[in-house]
Design a protein that fits this description.
11 helices; alpha/beta; 401 residues; globular
Length: 401
């Protein structure tokens, strides 16, 4: 038997398959302002272990059975009650699907809705994880200008009309209205109503990403877009990642019944990890309402530390958002500053951040912007890290000494 020829997979990949993903391990700085990690010391490990032990004593034998496609029913019941109580979203547990964090539910919604070239309308800078998924489905992603209150309704309306005039169908409005990632603002009540009115006027659905809503440090949380609609235009995504632990990977989507049936069809595999769902459910029932204010006290101090450090080190030579919650501050340097170029230089000084183009639909705009996350480092480390960042920028001519 002759020697087998090496198989060339390049001619076999699906036309819609994404390009290869880089294997490079991204370096983390000691002062890690790049990724939205929570405080590792506030993870409720003992209570999670206790909750899991209780759940396994009661239901452990059921791990021999594949989980429900939509996820552990008691946890969906808990989510339905939480949504009704806190976000005025009244849905049945059957209209909720649990997923791996919020990313899988978002992926499911985009897979169910998008054909190649469909227009998606979103903020001019928004969460890069969702942007990557939109690119995966080859959507025509169009950023809508924002001010300190979020997406501009008139600009959204004009963008929808323009797409229609081009013969393109706007399929979706994606927004993070509460403690925006990366821009840090929170969309107020009147702006939310205006955005919903635009969606209703044109018959375009909204995917409301509310993953950070529980991380409230100041003021009241405006109502959900879902609660302002009443006509089935809104799908709602959230997660336990920021309130319990990102590594547990439990999130969820709520949607109109007919949409849920479509999402069930595109969901990969069976339900979410039942082992994790059991722990999250028992923990949430007994501990989550007490835990959230505790972690918010921790994160509020870190937000305040970063705001103070920026004021001390950057002064009037930059501007930045002042978030009422969440984990993100949006830094703006002078026009012409290239924070993409300076990122690797800053990492040599152990400071990490993500530059603006990573959040831009065109992947280019926003070189003078950066997202700074304040959740991981202590207040003392935040002061040290921001001072180091200012030193790097000053050495490279982006900041006057």
């Amino acid at each position: 038997m002759g020697e087998a020829r090496h198989l060339d997979f390049e001619r076999l990949y699906a036309k819609t398959a994404p390009p290869p993903r880089d294997r490079t391990v991204v370096k983390r700085g000691k002062y890690d302002f790049a990724i939205a990690y929570p405080d590792p010391h506030s993870l409720p490990l003992d209570d999670l272990v206790e909750s899991l032990r209780e759940a396994l004593d009661e239901e452990g034998a059921n791990l021999a059975v594949y989980p429900h496609l939509q996820g552990y029913p008691p946890l969906r019941q808990y989510v339905a009650e939480k949504l009704a109580r806190e976000r005025a979203i009244n849905v049945s547990p059957d209209d909720i699907i649990l997923g791996d964090g919020s990313s899988q539910p978002i992926y499911m919604a985009l897979e169910a809705l998008l054909d190649v070239g469909d227009v998606v309308l979103t903020e001019d800078y928004f969460y890069q994880g969702t942007l990557v998924t939109m690119r995966r489905f080859r959507a025509d992603v169009r950023g809508i200008p924002c001010d300190a209150d979020g997406m501009l309704p008139d600009a959204l309306d004009s963008a929808i009309v323009r797409a229609q005039q081009q013969g393109k169908r706007p399929k979706l409005i994606y927004t993070i209205p509460t403690y925006h990632n990366p821009q840090g603002w929170t969309m107020p009540f009147e702006r939310r109503k205006a955005i919903v009115r635009v969606a209703q006027k044109h018959g375009v659905p909204i995917l409301e990403d509310d993953c950070y809503v529980d991380l409230r440090y100041d003021g009241d949380v405006p109502p959900s877009l879902w609660s302002l609609d009443g006509a089935g235009h809104v799908m709602y995504v959230s997660s336990f990642s920021k309130t319990i632990a990102p590594g547990m990977r439990i999130g969820y989507i709520a949607a109109p019944t007919a949409v849920v049936d479509r999402l069930r069809a595109v969901k990969s595999g069976s339900g979410v990890n039942q082992f994790t769902a059991l722990a999250v459910h028992r923990y949430a029932l007994k501990h989550l309402d007490k835990h959230i204010p505790e972690i918010n006290d921790v994160q509020r101090a870190r937000r305040d530390a970063m705001l103070a450090a920026l004021g001390e080190n950057f002064g009037s030579q930059a501007t930045w958002s002042r978030p009422m919650g969440g984990l993100f501050i949006w830094l703006k340097m002078a026009e012409g500053t290239d924070l993409v170029k300076l990122r690797d230089i800053a990492l040599k000084d152990e400071v990490g951040y993500i530059p603006g183009p990573m959040f831009a639909p065109d992947g280019v705009t926003g070189k003078n912007y950066a997202r700074l996350c304040f959740g991981y480092n202590t207040p003392e480390e935040i002061h040290e890290g921001i001072a180091r960042l200012a030193d790097v920028f000053a050495r490279e001519g982006a900041l006057q000494g």
